[in-house]
Amino acid sequence: MAEILEARKKQVLVNGSDDYALECEKVSTAGSVSQRACVFCGSRVVLYPIADAVHLIHGPIGCAAYTWELRGSLSSGPELHRLSFSTDLRENEVIYGGEKKLYAALTELITAYRPSAAFVYGTCIIGLIGDDIDAVAARVEKEQGIPVIAVHSEGFKGTKKDGYRAACDALARLLGGDNDSAVSPRSINILGEFNLAGETWIIKDYYRRMGVEVVSCITGDARIGDIARAHRAALNVVQCSGSTTYLAKMMQEKYGIPYIRVSYFGIEDMSRALYDVAEFFDDDAIRENTSALVREELEKLLPGLLDYKKDLMGRKAAVYVGGSFKAWSMVKALRHLGMETVVVGSQTGSPEDYEYLKEICAPGTVILDDANPLELSGFVLEKGADLLIGGVKERPIAYKMGIGFCDHNHERKEALAGFEGMLNFAREVHCSVTSPVWKYAPARIRAAGGKP
Ligand code: SF4
What we know:
Helices cover 45% and strands 15% of the residues. It is an alpha/beta fold. It folds into three domains: 6-25 and 306-447, Nitrogenase molybdenum iron protein domain (Rossmann fold); 39-174, Nitrogenase molybdenum iron protein domain (Rossmann fold); 187-292, Rossmann fold (3-Layer(aba) Sandwich), CATH 3.40.50. Helix 6 (160-174) runs parallel beside helix 9, helix 10 runs antiparallel to helix 11 (284-312) and helix 12 (324-336) runs parallel beside helix 13. The longest helix is centred in the middle third of the chain and has 29 residues, at 284-312. The radius of gyration is 23 Å and the shape is globular. The structure holds iron/sulfur cluster (SF4). Iron/sulfur cluster is lined by residues 38, 40, 59, 63, 123-124, 155.
């Protein structure tokens, strides 16, 4: 068994053998070197795809290092979100305060780029020195006549999930701004979809073919104007539930908009998402369009999967992703490829999420919350996984162990959502798992008794 810190023992279980409820939604254990990102990063994940806004990180330059260039959220129009602005705080501001610098930076950026809104992200040091970012934002908003929103995302104040919540609070400020433009009674908002590698466009096209209007996508390829009218949609369809369920609940309370949870990954979950939306509208035309769409897409997809499945049958996978909705979909999608998931976990899963994972995983599967690299690599080795699905921080773990890797995080450059995304996913998994390169990896050579 991989080594697990005493304080984390209940955050890991073997499905079918351990009968306790998995502990989750807690701060990371000291010394564990969690794979989780900070609160600020959680806010940025949700808000950064808004393409016609200025995103200004108020803090030292290091917080701004993880730029758009490493991520894949695409825009069909303006690309302000690609620019990584920072107030670049130094010792002088840490001692005397950074409000003047923030005011100057905001004023300069808004004058230069004429954005539809500006977000100011508070980082750790802002929480420590006590800059009043709300006051500066309010002053600039008044002077410039656009929404200027302070995002309270100081990195130390919780988990990545608190960052999601801060982002939802910021988004809530934009709702209700447009009560005039026409909105269909058969309309939805897509929540928790970030247009990585153009995935929002695939999903929007499905809804268009069904006869459903998408009022706004929060926040893939988003514009401030669309978010301002989102409160008038008939339904919120929430994908990345960890990041935007909080916003969906707020909208339900304030505007009476119901929400459903979906996933756009894998055949079953993608189809289910469309059928659930069709069911909500209880409209025969939409139902028929949906059935025709799913049939058409499956006819194109299924033959293509068969070749990959032949080679992948019986192979084992480990999955470690940010949100547990994706973990569920991965388990099912891998099953379609003939692969068994032997290790699965997430950074931000809830108790209900993990209970569902227990239901869909085979006995013996290791399920873990908020893992660290040692645990992950230990379990991957112990269970003999041939593939690790994760993000930028999991990639080196897979490569060091000499096994296949599939990037399913915000850095991916290939669309993995939708029916066509399933085919891309199968191709990526197949290429990586069957690559001959792994036999030259030192870890594999050592495991086979040789000398690297
Ligand atoms: S933890 Fe704090 S200092 Fe580090 S990136 Fe996040 S906000 Fe910046």
